[in-house]
Amino acid sequence: MMNKQRFARVVENMKASGLSQILVTDDPSIFYLTKRIVNPMERCGAILIKDSGEVHAFMNNLFCFDPIDGMVMHYYADGENPYALIAAELQPGKVGFDKNWPSKHTISVLQERDDLIPVLGSDCVDLCKSQKDEEERELLRKASRVNDLAVGYAIDHIDPSLDEKQLSDMIEEFFEAHGAARDIQLQYVCYGKNAAEPHHGAVAGEKLKEGDAVLFDLWAPVDNYWCDMTRTVFYKRVSDEHRKVYEIVKEAQQAAIDFVKPGVKMCDIDAVARKVITDAGYGDYFLTRTGHGVGMTVHEPPEASASCDLIAQPGMCFSIEPGIYLKDDVGVRIEDLVIVTEDGCEVLTKYPKELQIVGND
Ligand SMILES: [Mn+2]
User: Fold this and answer.
1) Distance separating alpha carbons of residues 338 and 132, to the nearest angstrom
2) Residue 12 and residue 238: Cα distance in Å, rounded?
């Protein structure tokens, strides 16, 4: 079924950005508009939206993409040229292409015609997608509830007999048992100094030592919507400096959450978290942006970073995840997902954030 409301919002965005035609090809974007998952792999699949409201779909007949009411369907078979079909429906001038469409497709469309001007068009859809409607908010809440359970499970199963990879595998099984999709990426489970690398994946053979930080950054899709959450705890004891670092990150994270409301700039959310950490003397060790949008993909607009001028709007969902990373020593990151509400934000992930020392019972 075509989601007419969502298509109408995309067309509004197209008009606002002076685009009369865009090709939508990202799987999550097509799902967002049609509730259909295409997954064309290396083949060509596209939806053309015109500012008149006319919509065309170009699909290989192997995709099982049944006709949709209100959409002009163009099917092609293996061995036929889908790009000629697309090119025949385009008007001369600017065409908005999707950011992630492989260049072999984009270039092939352009080679069919010499009167097309390619521009990036995916913002028209991505901006809509960034403002979640109530149905999507409920899916995000549900995914975060699973994430709360997964973080609890992970922390409860910290054990010196398990290396990072073994614990990570157990967490993935836990996610699957609680409804997350099977094809999930590696979870970040980091012991000790490994937590100082913001993107350290779980490694086989990495053992836990007394005094180590244990950082869990866990994410998974549940019913096509993602969760993403980080907690850092300490094993058996915590040094004074690590405790200090933890409390600074916690304060920065809370300050940023408290700042979120409609109308604030995403870059200012980053600045609020960064100021707390910089004032405490650790600014050089806050290596990442403060957050990123989450929805049908785990990294999407809007991002809370110095380079993002987007304004927070009700329904936007993003992470707040400042951290301090001291090389060869420790890393602390605390991450929650929030949804902007009418006057502030709703925090979706609820696992407690008080400093926790585990393994002493
Ligand atoms: Mn994240």
Assistant:
1) 12
2) 54
H/E stretch holding 255: helix 240-259
Distance CA 137, CA 130 (A): 11
What is the average per-residue pLDDT within 54-64? 94
In whole angstroms, what is the distance from residue 254 CA to residue 66 CA?
A: 47
Q: What is the tens place of the pLDDT at every residue in 2-35?
A: 889 999 999 999 999 999 999 999 999 999 999 9
CA of 72 to the centre of ligand 1 (A): 38
Q: In terms of C-beta density within 10 A (0-12 exposed, 13-18 middle, 19 or more buried), how is residue 204 classed?
A: exposed
**Ligand 1 center–CA 229 separation, angstroms:** 6
C-alpha of residue 294 to centroid of ligand 1, in Å? 8
- Inter-axis angle of helices 4-16 and 123-130, nearest 10: 130
Q: Mean pLDDT over all residues of the chain?
A: 95
CA of 21 to the centre of ligand 1 (A): 33
- From the list 357, 358, 277, the residue with the least C-alpha distance to 323 is 277
Per-chain residues with Cβ under 5 A from ion ligand 1: 228, 319
Asked if 215 contacts 167 with a C-beta cutoff of 8 angstroms, the reply is no
Could you give the CA distance from residue 100 to residue 118 in angstroms, rounded to a whole number?
Answer: 14
Q: DSSP letter string over 124-182?
A: HHHHHHHB--HHHHHHHHHHHHHHHHHHHHHHHT--TTS-HHHHHHHHHHHHHHTTB-S
Residue 336 C-alpha to ligand 1 middle, in angstroms? 8
Residue 185 pLDDT greater than 90, yes or no: no
The answer to whether the beta carbons of residues 57 and 47 sit under 8 Å apart is: yes
Q: Are 95 and 22 within 8 A, CB to CB?
A: yes
Cβ–Cβ contacts within 10 Å for residue 343, how many? 8
Q: Is the pLDDT of residue 186 over 80?
A: no
Domains of the chain: 4-129 (3.40.350.10), 131-358 (3.90.230.10)
pLDDT at 63: 87
Please state the pTM of the whole predicted model. Answer: 0.90
CA of 144 to the centre of ligand 1 (A): 12
